Amino acid sequence: MDVKSQEKNRRIVLKISGESFCPANDRGISMESVNHLASQIAQVAGQGIEVAIVMGGGNILRGAQFKAANSSIQESTAHYMGMLATVINGLALLDAIEAQGQPARLMSAISMSTVAEPYIRRRATHHLEKKRVVIIAGGTGSPFVTTDTAAAQRALELEADILLKATKVDGIYSDDPVKNPNAVFYSTLTYDEVQNQKLRVMDSEAIAKCAEHNMPIMVFNFRKDENLEKAARGEHIGTLVKN
């Protein structure tokens, strides 16, 4: 790896789904999974890379589960419930990262000052400059906006060098590689290719935001040791989406 690639990604935004917090085909929080993730994050931050993390909450609750015809819960309410789930995950990750000796802060787009700081861009930037890992929960604070779009928004606001999408597969495929062994792996893609082929890596609004402002996205398998470190340092692993 050359010097330029080492210097490339000084500030990253990492999107972590709720699935990262639990074993495959399970729900809830597995501290084994959380601790493994926290150790990788602390290792990256220890190298001087500024790390902001946008949390998902699907391991605890998904708004879609309340869309049944007999549900009395409004869809907007379900989205707020999902945002609260991201705060629960954020609290677990916060303690796990600090147990590694790495300073961190939890910030929320929904006001809950007892457990998290309010998300304010300038304050988040200050924490990053002080080499604190910033965990961002609560999505954007508004319903009908996915955490993928929240991650794209935060990456742009915080002027990150790249948006990293942590997944359980090696990158973007033409189809689900778990269900289709003949799925084709893509090493690089343009934003238009992702949209035109309807590749389900992030929602279309998130891709559109990144495309408009030329924010590169790297999709990689975080379960493989050292992958997060390599991605954060600028090595091309998984799939890179850019112009």
Note down, in words, how this protein is organized.
The chain has 243 residues and is α/β, with parallel strands linked by helices. The protein has one domain: Acetylglutamate kinase-like (Carbamate kinase, 3-Layer(aba) Sandwich), CATH 3.40.1160.10. 36% of the residues lie in helices and 18% in strands. It has 8 helices and 11 strands. A 9-stranded mixed sheet has the order 4-3-5-2-1-6-10-11-9, with helices on both faces. Strands 7-8 form a two-stranded antiparallel ribbon. It is globular, with a radius of gyration of 17 Å. The two termini are 22 Å apart. Mean pLDDT is 91; it is low at 1-8.
Topology overview:
Blueprint: H1 3-8, E1 11-16, H2 31-45, E2 50-55, H3 75-99, E3 104-108, E4 117-118, H4 121-129, E5 133-137, H5 147-157, E6 162-167, E7 172-173, E8 185-186, E9 188-189, H6 191-196, H7 204-212, E10 217-221, H8 227-233, E11 239-241
Parallel strand pairs: 1-2, 1-6, 2-5, 3-4, 3-5, 6-10, 9-11
Antiparallel strand pairs: 7-8, 10-11
